[in-house]
């Protein structure tokens, strides 16, 4: 490589062993430039998508609240029927597989709290699940890259923000909106179930969803089901053109 020899003083130095040539400064600069350009491009794409996330959403918090209220007024505390009502109507409104009708309940441990969920929809920018527990739980909400709307279908959820001295109380039929990037302590004293809708960037939230399972419960079959159902939904939705 004569051109390399000419441009690289390191290579021609008699003290450098020829068997293990060092990377020339030129190559490092090239790598650095490519890396910088890549980071800048990715940042620009993320920034652009972030400011246009709205156009990828198919669900709306006000419609989901209305649906929750109608489900409760039709079926009261028969929560199984409330869930079936919600899944059925969502599927009618969004035909074509956007709503998962295979009601599989999967345990979820996150932020110290424990409950189970039925994943109705998962894509890159939205998820819709029924989350709850029949025995109560308490924990950290997690700091998320998405807005979270927790529609209480049964029971009551309490929430606490540092600095306040009274709990926020979310009874049946109310919505607890946890704004993107904010955190709270939450508690369900007794049985509580909710229709949870998150919109924003969903993949980063999965780290929170998996953390307790990977570092505490080590419940591999549960982690596997969550990975399988979430992954399948996200990929099938992408194939459908739902980002
Ligand atoms: C559900 O049960 C609770 C507790 O018994 C009660 O306060 C509430 O009114 C019931 N909700 C409906 C919709 O029947």
TrEMBL record:
Residue intervals passing through the bilayer: 30-49
Pathway recorded for this protein: Steroid metabolism; ergosterol biosynthesis
EC number per UniProt: 5.-.-.-
One GO MF term: isomerase activity
Alphabetized Pfam families for the sequence: ERG2_Sigma1R
Major location category of this protein: endoplasmic reticulum
The keyword 4Fe-4S belongs to this UniProt entry's keyword annotation: no
UniProt keyword list: Endoplasmic reticulum, Isomerase, Membrane, Transmembrane, Transmembrane helix
Location of this chain's protein in the cell: Endoplasmic reticulum membrane
GO BP term (any one): ergosterol biosynthetic process
Record-level GO cellular component terms: endoplasmic reticulum membrane
Taxonomy, superkingdom: Eukaryota
Region (Disordered) location: 1-28
Family: Belongs to the ERG2 family.
Protein name (Swiss-Prot/TrEMBL): C-8 sterol isomerase
Taxonomic placement: Eukaryota, Fungi, Dikarya, Ascomycota, Pezizomycotina
GN (gene name): erg-1
